[in-house]
């Protein structure tokens, strides 16, 4: 569940990872600590209503929510209503966003532009703790193209593991993170989501700006090393209505 999300592949970053364990007391605790005089800004479109009076409480310090480490160190895949293909790896937070963009570039170039097996990818990042972020990637091949897309994906990941990441993928990742940083700065909801996740997981909030700053010093060699390390924990999920080619997992040395 902590790798693909409680409600299926690709839903983890929407908050589904924390929902099964979230309690009303924790929500109230967060509100008391953050919805306060020194921490909340109200914005109106037009003049404020006449006679409005808002009296917010002082900040109430609350202890950080403990993280159940044992529950999130064991990779777990849960049933999903989706009928397609997805995979997950884990990487350190500073480089996870960059790796996700690199994977997006390589997958779209190979599986869409060269082979026409998919139309799009959905990528989701979920902070596990201060040292680990899950990268979940969801692909959308047609039913009859799930197995060809799986085989092409495995071949691509093997090539990246062997030959490494190219300059074009790194340049694409930097441009993507630059766009994300600009959008993030303009959307308060992203900031609030990040603060909430950081509070409930007791880990610092990551931002596209932080990832972009890290990306400026990253090289194809350093990204290749990080990707190789991440791929040692690769998990793949395939629609169970599909018939996997015999021996595919063993030939590629992966868990499906």
Mean pLDDT: 76
Counting copies of identical and different chains, the oligomeric state is: single chain
Largest beta-sheet characterization: 4 strands, antiparallel
Across the major sheet, the strand order is: 2-3-1-4
The end-to-end distance, rounded to whole angstroms, is 15 Å
Q: Beta-strand level of the residues, as a percent range?
A: 5-15%
Instruction: Kindly state the percentage of residues in helix.
Output: 40-55%
Low-confidence stretches: 1-18
Globally, the shape reads elongated
Number of helices: 9
Secondary structure: number of strands: 4
Rg for CA atoms: 21 Å
Structural class: alpha+beta
Order of helices and strands: HHEHEEHHHHHEH
Précis, in short:
The chain has 256 residues and is an alpha+beta fold.
Explain what you see:
The protein is α+β, with helices and mostly antiparallel strands. The protein has helices spanning 24-34, 69-72, 93-114, 146-163, 167-186, 188-201, 208-215, 220-231, 248-252, and strands at 85-91, 121-129, 132-139, 235-238. Strand 2 and strand 3 form a beta hairpin. Helix 3 packs across helix 5 (167-186), helix 3 (93-114) packs across helix 7 and helix 4 crosses helix 8 (220-231).
List keywords for this structure.
256 residues, 4-stranded antiparallel sheet, 9 helices
List the helices and strands and how they pair.
Elements: H1 24-34, H2 69-72, E1 85-91, H3 93-114, E2 121-129, E3 132-139, H4 146-163, H5 167-186, H6 188-201, H7 208-215, H8 220-231, E4 235-238, H9 248-252
Antiparallel strand pairs: 1-3, 1-4, 2-3
Helix pairs in contact: 3-4, 3-5, 3-7, 4-8, 5-7
